[in-house]
Amino acid sequence: GQSYDELVWKNLHNDVPSWTTGVMNAVAQSWLVIAVSCTIAAIGIITALIRRRWWLAGQIAVFAVVCLAVTRIKGLLPRPFIINTQSPAANSAPSGHAMLAAACAVILLLAVPRAVRALAGVIGVVWAVTVGVSVIYGQWHRPSDVAMSILLVAGLALLALAVTRKSGMEGAHRGSSVSVQIVGSVLITGGLLLLVYSGYVIWQVVPGLNVSASWAVQGANVSAVVGIAGVAMLAFGLLLALRQITAAPLSRLGLIGAPPAPPKR
Q1: What is the pLDDT along the chain (265 residues), one digit of tens a residue?
Q2: Which one of 22, 40, 128, 136 has the fewest CB atoms closer than 10 angstroms to its CB?
Q3: CA 109, CA 11: separation in Å to the nearest integer?
Q4: Phi then psi dihedrals of residue 112, to 5 deg
Q5: Cα 249 to Cα 180: distance, rounded to the nearest angstrom
Q6: Which of 209, 229, 228, 211 is nearest to 220 (CA)?
Q7: pTM attached to this predicted model
């Protein structure tokens, strides 16, 4: 695993298509990642306040603080160096920039109304993958750092959604959403397929990892990008589905009991 991380870290920046280098170089700027991510989160928070979803706004604030706190675990979980590596020991898992991008995209998904929820999920996937790949391209982090970051954000968001209250619901007009059903299903299915493909490619290049064989470089790079895309698609697909379920619940207890009262406007 560490040989795989190191191989991708060393070679991805030399193995991306020429048309992507401009985007990668731009997104690899720390200030741009922070500015765009904070703008996405601000749109979500303002949307929640305009919609008078007070509990949801508070929930988002707590979620943001917890995500920020979780980035500090890299100091408590130092990376063991099993092999000789060139990648920096200081930048370990999770990646703060990848967590920031994913968390801000999740805030947008939580706050927006049903009509644009699917679009928010797609934006989240695109931004999380773009930032995740760029921090590897810029040699800030390894693939495992990025994957851990997205999974941590997704796990915390799923826990937050588990305690959704009235102000997080859709009011008197709760119901299904065709766009959420389609996009959520595509993201979950596509994410699983990409992860399977990534795992297959990694299995193919395993014999060349310990010796950093040149023939294994391209496969490792492809599997890393595909794997990060798969993790992001699966995470945001699940979040999209659970957000719709908690915004339009069938009852207080799931499938039985009286439906919950809509929030008062």
Answers
A1: 888 888 888 888 787 777 777 777 777 777 888 899 899 999 999 988 888 888 888 888 988 899 888 888 877 777 777 666 666 666 677 888 889 999 999 999 998 888 899 999 999 999 999 999 988 888 888 898 899 999 999 999 998 888 877 766 776 566 677 888 899 999 999 999 999 999 999 888 888 777 767 777 788 889 999 999 999 999 999 999 888 888 776 655 544 455 556 556 5
A2: 22
A3: 34
A4: -75, 155
A5: 15
A6: 209
A7: 0.85
